[in-house]
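Model: You mentioned two targets. I'll fold them one after the other.
Researcher: Yes, keep them separate.
Model: Target one:
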Amino acid sequence: MAKRFEKCQIDVLKSAFEESEHLTREKKIDLVRTTGLDMEQIASWFNRKRACKRARKSLGDLERINAELQLAMEESREKEAELQKKLNENKQREAELEAENQSLKQLISSYLWR
């Protein structure tokens, strides 16, 4: 089973990661001396840390995009409801005008056939 790093080792690695996410060979050698870890352990820790950072960024991006989509969907629903209301009003007005038109046609017809 893999041995966990000590807190002081993690603190040194975190500090180095904050300075730069990618290590130079010299910095790796310095970290080997400072932490007592080997180069492979240090490189692996940095790789995992970068992967976690990318994953957190991706998750944040997805959450932001999801929020934007939810807002757009709500706006779309509101616009759809508004358009549906206008459509219903127009249909009602069309029916009223059609009835008025029929009434006027009958009136004209009755005057013409007198």
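Model: Target two:
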Amino acid sequence: MSTSEVAQPSSGGVIAFIEKAGKKIPDPIIIFMWFLVFVFALTALIGGLTFETQSADGSAISHTIKNMTEAEHVRWVFDNALLNNWLGFGGGVLGVILIVMLGVGVAESSGLFNALIKKIGTRLNEKFLAPALIFLGIMSSIATDAGYLILIPLAGLLYAGLGK
């Protein structure tokens, strides 16, 4: 089979059915947006309703459904749900990773990493590269749990910069 030929599914069978059904499913972001619109419309209809649940100790807890189409409640979603969920995930590690990756992306795009790697690579003796990376690994693990996510690609860039 050449690279220009594409395997066509058979005319029948379970696999063909699954493939046809799979091609009709929209992208996950579209499904998410549909659910978002559905939830906002549903809260507009039933917003303000109150119901009660029982806690573990037997006392009643009252819950009120918020109408998410009101500006105050949209603000609540962005202030509480998004920030606390995203930045607080995993004990706060995700927030650190997002900020560090943003900084690394800016530094990489601006050429800062390239210049630093060239400067370090030309001044650092090759026999000291492994001990320097071990030291950086220890320091990064003390500073943050996400240090290895930055150090491993940086080590690869250093070794590539030295031609190894």
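Researcher: Noted. Anything on target two?
Model: The chain is about 65% helix and 5% strand.
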